Amino acid sequence: MSLLLSGMAASANPPTCQGNDCIEQQKLYLSWALGYGQRSNPLNGGKNLDLVVLPEIYYYSKYWFFDNGRLGSSIALSEHTQLSIIGQFNQEKGYFKQWFSGNLLQFEASTVMMPQFSIAFERQAPSEVALSQVSKRPTAFDVGLQLDTVRHNTLWQLAYWTDASKQHHGQYASIGARRGWQSAYGNWQLAARLHWKSAQLIDTYYGLTALEVAPGQEYQGRDSWQAELRLNWNKPLTERLSVLIFLRYLQLDNAMTDSALVRSDHVTTWFGGVSYRFF
Question: Which of 2, 80, 193, 267 is most buried by a 10 A CB count?
Fold first, then answer.
């Protein structure tokens, strides 16, 4: 699992780092985690996603990088600050289709997550609409700008994304912070993030039209604010083998839950297992 600064992309003048916080340029990193976990599905009729085998793949060259589904390039603005342009598939599609690439790459530079035994309630809509009743949702590719800066051993991150594929015609942004630390019990990482998603994005995936539902069940999406909390833990057993746990909790607001397609006000993800790094 990446530590505090491992998410900092390569550039012509990369920010300084030390020891295990560094990623070696022009070297492919590949590891597989074997274990069990689950990501809940907030949609009516949507199946929870079982997590059994998860890959972690990243490569940083001098001018570009690939990091668990994200492709981009970065430039160092200062010793502790960096600006990146990044492209990735929009993750909302993962609730509608299990065989979606974004569902496989659960790890990311700040992956951290809260278990599914949460007390939050399952929302019962007056007139529920099942996933099987609605038309297919599009697969979108988004591009964005991401600003990373390290202050007082904490990584602060600001990102803004827009639809480059003209599928949902929306935008979304996030602001967050994460901090990693080491102890005798292993390596830890805690992160919090606040997401904003535009009305166009929410309407494309969770809106309901008169062609899909009975009169009175239509829904037009609104701007959404969603809070996220993540936690990672891993403990190396050998140079290549380690045990790990990650937990994630995402709180959904009424811009999503007012849709009869959505049954829950939260999404939880958890996974525990053993990771082996091949190279």
Answer: 2
Looking at residue 113, what is its pLDDT?
A: 28
Q: What is the pLDDT of residues 5-61, one digit of tens each?
A: 333 333 333 444 444 445 677 778 899 999 999 999 999 999 999 999 999 998 988
Q: Higher model confidence: residue 138 or residue 113?
A: 138
The DSSP-derived string for the chain is: ---TTTTSPP-SSPPP--GGG---TT-EEEEEEEEEEEE---BTTPPPEEEEEEEEEEEE-SS-EEETTEEEEEEESSSSEEEEEEEEE-GGGGGT-SS-HHHH----TT-----TT--PPBP--SS---GGGSPPPPP-EEEEEEEEEEETTEEEEEEEEEESSSSS--EEEEEEEEEEEEETTEEEEEEEEEEEE-HHHHHHHH-B-TTTS-TT--B----EEEEEEEEEEEEESSSSEEEEEEEEEEE--HHHHTSTTB-BSEEEEEEEEEEEE--
